[in-house]
Write a structure and sequence with these properties.
Number of domains of chain A: 1
Radius of gyration of chain A: 25 Å
Oligomer: homotetramer
CATH architecture of chain A: Up-down Bundle
CATH topology of chain A: Methane Monooxygenase Hydroxylase, Chain G, domain 1
Structural class of chain A: mainly alpha
Number of helices of chain A: 18
């Protein structure tokens, strides 16, 4: 009662909100019943994009600090997990849109030209703030989305591009992981030794296997060698640079090491939240990928495809975006370098001490 | 290219839409991060309510005609099924709202007074247009929702209350089912005979059962008698009136008969769509009930409960609404009167002919 | 009470069912907690596959008849819609599997060799019975799945391959559509006329457009010509054959015509269920595609990818399968040939009469 | 290759699993198509129950220790969250079951007597292991579920009843929270002071409010007093005992205090995981409640209701179970005692130090 009273209707600006649906079919021709669904689906998408940006912005602020105190980790993780839940939820809206048949869509499709979901500023901002770079987008020279935006919208994208993205900030945060810089920390040589021993054992198993012919043994040993060489890239900065050039990893040598440490020793109290943070980012990438892919399917279903093509340009773009616009692919690829937990070397005693609550 | 070009941003009125989130906590005190989520959740609810009303209005229009041609049934069913899909979908939004903890809610709860979801005009309109009557609402004398609305909103509800609801129109449509009025149609006596024979058989099975004691036989025979008496209400207009007075059925004697016919003979071509229509209405009731119940749970979780009560008044209201605000309970209760398909009497030949395509 | 009593536990064979989880990690080494999840996820998949096959088999039986009576359509559609609901539901199980991290998977992964989901007989049967042909699978010569099956399983697949698939039966059913054979039915010439007129109008709009340069007009007119030529394939059996050779359509000329008729005139009573049947098949393809794609993502996340490849062979296979193993692509591509409903020519009077209930 | 090879089919015991569906309708009468769905739905439920028990058992083991090291918290929380995801997922199976209509159910319902979901041992074990006590079940004297189980199943329940439940172990764990026993920790008096001051302020706001009549002021002040008295129960062990007797709280005085501390100071590093643990338990209760409620709805829809009753006994039982069989209601009710974060007193410096990583 301390504050001026407010009604639900006014609080939510419902007058404004519920008058924001103008059916072009009605204005310019014959009212098409399903245009309302089309509008509502896209408007709710945009409201949820706003919410996602709200969360991502707050996480960006947290990680912009020169150090992120542990007491802020719980909140940052919870907010990223909320973004994941929202993305997962709105993936289900495609089902609602598909209750509209292609024939129903044709009733108003012509009135919409050239409006297109490609012009969604908020989605582009979201991708950009998370860390999708212009030169990573599959068609960058003649950027299909940038040119379609209004000039103030382009400026907003430009500003996001020149600010540190979540990818940049997470990289910085990973690089700062103190446990990697401890002088006496010989972890990586320990890990390397263990990996080499595992491969040595694998070679012996193959060589001794009586069920394998010589040719099969050769083939298996060759496979093993290739795998071992991959692991070597992890221990050798020069070889690692090659992985970066090939687009296999975008993170720095140090950041990848920190991420691997977090994932392998996730049960240490101080790494529990960082582990969850990484899981949330993997989930987010996966659901955003699904979103693009589902829309690709939906476009095919809705407007068919020209003969001799892999679908409309929209269908094609969305499929390629699903494939290539991953921001956190490094975390997916990192799985290549795990070894079974039973083989993971124990942490040095001093290091473990720092990862736990000493006094409780 | 025949029409003036339009951009995505303008088509969706995004300027207006994305500026409709005013955080009261920011205006009146300290910005509470999660107030944005609270607003977006309710705004997307309202947008979906608008869509549901859009569909329900169109179905109302179809069923307002003095006869509903079969070629309109497919569309009417598809639109009701869409309403069902939307209701099912937004039930999942409760999960998103619950990513906000009670403590986060407390950060801005005081600023919202006395705004409340009870003031949602669109939800009330939806309930009303579907057929929820004022005297059916569990607290009708001192109507908790009506008094909280603005006067123009009250007028809108009043107007909906005095127009035929979907319940009314579906009842009319059922009553018009031509197959019930065929002179020589002896279906109900056939059905009654069959039911009586089934109960007779059941009595014999009980009486002859060597594993049952006399006392058990008495009890079973008593149960059978009660069940048979229930079925008698279906064949006797006076007894049926009793069911209506008890609130067991709201539909008329004729409408219930038609509904039973549709459900039992749903495979007849002309009844396939009517059957789906009834299924959609049952689904809708079920998902609306879940929506109310989930919100009751959410309110308990979010604000706890006063000692000695069954929760807050909000929690309590929602639980009772879940229980009592069913519009299509008749269709649920109708299941009581089905008999196994193997026992359902075949339709008279002449009648069956009318339900099929004669010439194809 | 007429039948011998049965308990829940025995009815469901729970003794057997709940003893079917043997953790290889426990038998051969150290028990890995998450192996249970891995087993349960795959076992529930297989139970649902059994249910899907149960439904598909019953629909196959219905459509195997030389004519499908209308009174069987409601049931067939309901069963296909159930298959769709199941597929949609189990897509969500991927989320459950992903609560297992790659490191948890490593705890037992070695024990599973060479078991793999590729060896699921039921999934292959499902694909085959729906209509996926061997030469349509992206790697058919050296069939990766066939060779991994046991010989009795191979025989089962072989038998399914030599029986009519749902694709075959639906094609037959479409070809039998009586409305296409009516002597005086001039529908296709009507449709062709309408299409040509629409293209003519489009050309005029382009030519008269003062905002377009000559070069732009040339380009637009060229596009229009390409589109028009596509439509011509629909009216000319020779040109249509070209579409089939390119893999654009698999259905026959007649089947495609029938499908187009159903989709364009879906409101006619006799076409309402056929329309729903086609919608269900489109939905099924879309959810099966999502299932494959989601598993591709999951594999990437779970085991990473070798350098210089597009992922593991599993990841790669699943992505290609998502792309190419569509059974009902024809129905997706059909959308290319719709014209706005306002332009669709009315049905001849005599034909319309046959599609409606004459006597009611 | 170190281990004997295994095929997918054998690994999953598919021979056994896929032969565990015996349709009683087929054995005893006429095969009812939908009995398969009925069986598969319940079998997949039981498989998921097994998985949930697998997770709950492992969490029970963790919390059975006399102290739970922080490095085990991440895993325990992840496993409970998995149980939540499973429960949420299988709630969706009700939709699949409801694709079976009441008439389809009648085709085989008689063959199932007296089998019933009430006889599910695993579900009862799950409830019991989580902490549902016999005397908390709404019908305990003449226990409807206990008597229906086989004797070895009853023994299993009995054993679970006499072992510490998760509720018991969580209570112990809460009571052990070290921060509550610190000698100089004056937290509760601080909290009490703050609460009293807040109520004092509220009284002043009411008294000074010029818009309120004297009568309204009296009423508001009375409400405030009731609320304040509730809070007093939190600080006074005798008054708290009253809350326990009324069933408002089941936890001990100390456990409730610890839970409140965790929720209010959840951002402290050492409390982040405990906070998530509590959230997971709240979520679990909510989804289990929904499951019961959805099944109540389903039963009403499937078999109708007898006149003059609130539904069948099954419907009735499930609704009451939804209402009363909450295990973690304390955590819901705890929300009643939160105060706005801006008012929460800061932790004593020494205490805060112990909740953070001192040396990193």
């Amino acid at each position: 009662m301390k504050y001026p009273p407010i009604q639900y209707h006014d609080y939510l600006h419902l007058d404004q909100l519920l008058k924001s649906q103008t059916l072009r079919s009605e204005t310019l021709g014959t009212k098409a019943h399903d245009e309302m669904l089309f509008i509502i689906v896209h408007q709710t998408y945009e409201l949820w994009f706003k919410q996602m940006l709200h969360e991502v912005d707050s996480v960006l602020a947290t990680f912009s600090e020169s150090s992120v105190p542990e007491e802020k980790m719980g909140q940052a993780v919870a907010r990223l997990e909320r973004v994941v839940e929202i993305q997962k939820f709105i993936n289900g809206q495609v089902d609602l849109l598909e209750t509209m048949t292609p024939l129903d869509f044709l009733d108003f499709r012509d009135y919409l030209y050239p409006a297109s979901g490609f012009q969604s500023l908020q989605w582009r901002l979201l991708e950009t703030k998370l860390g999708l770079k212009m030169d990573q987008r599959f068609s960058f020279q003649d950027s299909p989305f940038f040119k379609q935006l209004k000039s103030d919208q382009q400026a907003e994208i430009q500003s996001a591009l020149t600010s540190p993205s979540l990818f940049d900030l997470i990289q910085n945060w990973l690089q700062r992981t103190p446990f990697l810089q401890t002088q006496d920390f010989t972890f990586w040589s320990l890990y390397q030794d263990r990996v080499r021993r595992l491969f040595q054992e694998e070679r012996e198993v193959i060589t001794r296997n009586p069920r394998l012919s010589d040719q099969e043994k050769q083939r298996s040993l060759h496979q093993t060698q290739i795998s071992e060489e991959m692991f070597e890239s992890l221990f050798n900065k020069e070889k690692f640079k090659k992985l970066q050039q090939d687009g296999y990893f975008r993170f720095s040598f140090e950041a990848i090491h920190a991420a691997l440490l977090i994932q392998l020793y996730r049960d240490e109290p101080i790494l529990q939240m960082p582990h969850r943070l990484i899981q949330a980012l993997i989930d987010l990438d996966e659901y955003m990928t699904q979103w693009r892919y589902r829309h690709a399917q939906m476009v095919h279903r809705m407007i068919g495809q020209k003969i001799g093509t892999g679908g409309s340009s929209g269908h094609d773009y969305l499929k390629k975006a699903a494939e290539h616009h991953k921001v956190w692919k490094d975390f997916f690829n990192l799985s290549t370098f795990y070894i079974p937990r039973s083989q993971v070397p124990p942490l040095p005693r001093e290091l473990m001490r720092k990862m736990r609550y000493s006094e409780v």
